[in-house]
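Title: Prediction job returns without error message
Component: structure pipeline
Severity: low
Priority: P3
Assignee: unassigned

Description:
Job completed but the reporter wants confirmation the result is attached to the right record. Sequence as submitted:
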Amino acid sequence: MSDIPKTMRAVVYRGVNDLRVETLPVPRIGDNELLVRVAVCGVCPTDIKKIHYGTVAPPRIFGHETAGTIVKIGAGAKIRATRLKVGDRVALHHHVPCLKCHFCRHRAFAQCETYKRTGITAGFEPSGGGFAEYVRVMDFVLPGVVKIPAKNSFAEGAMLEPVNTVLKAVKRLNLLRGDNVLVAGQGPIGLTFTKILELRGVNVLATDLLASRLKLAKKFGAKWAALANSPQVARHSSLDAAIIAVPSDSAVTQALQLVRGAGQVLLFAHTKRAAPASPSPTLISLVHPTRSSLSPQRGEGLRVRGETNRPASYPLTSPLHAADHAPFFDFASICLDEKDLIGSYSSDFTIQDEVARLVFSRRLDVRPLLTHRYPLEQTADAIALASKPTEKSLKIVINQRE
């Protein structure tokens, strides 16, 4: 390997919507740690949320869908046991659970305190670091390092983490071959859901507000495709499950109505918590019902109002789905019809080998999802596009060395 420089370029988060390209020291590593030269890092909505809303304190270097080349290895028995070596092309996982705590025993890995620690950094508070030229990989996330086969690209390696989150979510559903499942939203994540479900013998109803995305969904294996606000969707009233891959409350309500008895609705994109000081009207009307929040007529269900008191920076209406106003749902149907409303968040490193086989074999070919590549200096532009996607944009990556 070439000599490692003393300094590197990195995109530093300095405050809300404030990203700066700066020169920083290359991270130093300790025993049982790796130094990886970043080749590709994907732009993830969770990082966009932090940048736009300032949910974490600066300074930080984001980017966690990372692939690159090992350029230095620290001493130690733990690192020797991995059989990793300088020159290996690798994909990284920034979260690895302890596998021993209460949450891990229940396979709720994202709730594990060890998992919540970020084990990859380019400097400052560890935050992934993929928007930099080099990252330090700490010892406790070594089990998450995956070698990239020679035939596969760094970009395919960087897609392991987002694909992992999708497969983890699919495994939360009690699906059988031949079942019918709605996937609401056909962005890069929704399309990945559609393909993985198709590979498992599931019939997918894909919805989106863009006709072009529906054409893509058909190519990714959807049996049916319909505009989200079309009457066609309501004709599918015997679904076994629904996956909500857009942060739309109305899509959730629609899905709960469409799934049959014992059906499941899985939330994947509702990742922004309501402000603690401003409980939603939905919660207020459930805890303190009034004549304005409950129908006065016998036999009518509960009308749940949209969360109109969200911060102004969080749009009430998803760009991908219909307006979220006054959705109606009778919650007794969850009890009487035995429906499940569940969530899935982040990845599960215990399935990483299965994910790697899926991606590297190209049974799930992620390459058509990769529509835009930006150099490190244009990371702010990449994030701007990812936060307001166009009809032609899907997965956006920062490309340094492919």
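Comment from assignee: result matches the submitted record. The two ends are 16 Å apart (CA to CA).
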